[in-house]
Amino acid sequence: VSPPAYDGGTEVLEPVVTETADSITHGWNVRSKTAEEVAEELAEWRSAATITPRQVRLELANRDLLANIDTIIAALPAEEQEAMQIRWDYSNTIPRDAAWVSTLLGTGLSLDAAGLDTLFLDAAAQ
After folding, report:
1. Beta strands 24-32 and 11-19: pairing type?
2. What is the Cα–Cα distance from 55 to 51, expressed in whole angstroms?
3. What is the pLDDT of residues 37-47, one digit of tens each?
4. Cβ contacts of 116 within 8 Å, gap of 6 or more
5. Rounded alpha-carbon distances, angstroms, from residue 52 to 33, 57, 94, 96, 123
6. pLDDT, tens digit, for every residue of 54-111?
7. Does residue 60 contact residue 106 with C-beta atoms inside 8 Å?
8. Cα–Cα distance for residue pair 81/89, rounded to 1 Å
9. Alpha-carbon gap, residue 111 to 87, rounded angstroms
10. What is the value of pTM for the model shown?
């Protein structure tokens, strides 16, 4: 039996085997993901998601936010500015779950966690 259509983002496909005295039937059950499953998948995605500096800069330029980065870095405490500038200028990848990314792109651009997720998804399409 072919599996039914389902939304892998919100549903889980589970195999079902039904046994009777005369037969064994194989089928499928589609159920909604639990809040815990959704949260776990999101945490896994965030820990693995990376984009390139080119991708994030293109996306920020598309949103007219690229010029804000220098202002955000300049507004940081003096002892954090140089390290943040180096991370921004010289990182080979931009990891979604890095604390500096949350500070610079999340807090700095007033993006909540979902907004930062959207930024990464949109940037990855660049």
Report:
1. antiparallel
2. 6
3. 999 999 999 99
4. 96, 101, 102, 105, 106
5. 31, 9, 6, 11, 8
6. 999 999 999 999 999 999 999 999 999 999 999 999 999 999 999 999 999 999 999 9
7. no
8. 12
9. 19
10. 0.80
